[in-house]
Amino acid sequence: MAAQPQNLGSDVHMIDTAMSGYSGITAAYVILGSRPCLVETGTATSAQVVRQALAGLGVGADDLATIVVTHIHLDHAGGVGDLAAAFPRARVVVQDTGARHLADPSRLMASARRVFGPAMDALFGELLPTDAARIDTVGDVGSVDLGDGRRLEGYHTPGHARHHLGLVDTATGDLYVGDAAGLYIPPDDASSLTGLGSSGEMGQMLPGTPPPDFDLDLALESLARFRDLRPTRLLFSHYGPITEVDDALGRAAQEMRLWVSIVRAARTDQGGQFDLDHAVAMVRERTRERYADLLARPEVAAKFEELSSTAASVNGIARWLENEDKRLSEANGQG
């Protein structure tokens, strides 16, 4: 049975989308009011869970005004087609680079099937197309009307994905970070409103650096942009709220830099070549003590590994490093 939505205050409710049957791994958020808005859909296989949660909050088929996704990865936007059909009056909002893939998901789905193979259907399901006439796009900046003078301000924040948006609620200062700040894993005793444990512990943060779009420089610029927005709270799609904004953004940058440095060292060990198994082993070895609290919770570590595997993150970093090498080589050649 799906968990009940958590009331985070100011008409904001967090919905556990129960990805792959797990709790506490992927969140959607609904902002109630005169123009209810859903932020993130979860996977296609989660669409029914989200529909039921919205119904429990009094949001009927004709009530939802907007569906917004931070980016088009299938754990965030896989349910768009199903939910657009279930809520026929809702506009769908996405960063403009990703809009065509919601209208025609065939290339996105083919790519995902190559990556995930037989596990694809169980993990994500099928992203159904959305009528292009219902899709609104955000470029570098844009806004979503939440009614009664309240808005979501959207900001293009690439680095994790070229089609990524950060979203700020003008009424609360909440910042929906998507995956631009990586994954946040609350401590066991975290409260629903702060994300902190009873002792004030913040929990664990992990980088999300998958191919093909990861770019360290862009990712760090996006984190700096988040900081400049001066949010009051971060709402992670993976997973939940945290009030320690500056600490969390600082740690997100630190984790990215650390993993990049380890993968770079792994390439050096192999004479500049990339060996995935060697790089993954180095990351695990050099972060074992750092992530000891998480590794002491093997069931939690396992579900987040399924969502965002070490191998996928290492592959994304390796691809970026290879592209950086090419750029430097071309620049030196031109010089």
From TrEMBL:
Gene3D superfamilies per record: Ribonuclease Z/Hydroxyacylglutathione hydrolase-like (3.60.15.10)
Sequence ranges assigned to domain Metallo-beta-lactamase in this UniProt record: 25-238
Xref: InterPro entries: Metallo-B-lactamas (IPR001279), NDM-1-like (IPR050855), RibonucZ/Hydroxyglut_hydro (IPR036866), ST1585_MBL-fold (IPR037482)
Alphabetical list of CDD domains matching this protein: ST1585-like_MBL-fold
Pfam families recorded: Lactamase_B
PANTHER family, per the entry: METALLO BETA-LACTAMASE SUPERFAMILY LIPOPROTEIN, METALLO-BETA-LACTAMASE DOMAIN-CONTAINING
The protein's name: MBL fold metallo-hydrolase
Source species of the chain: Actinocrinis puniceicyclus
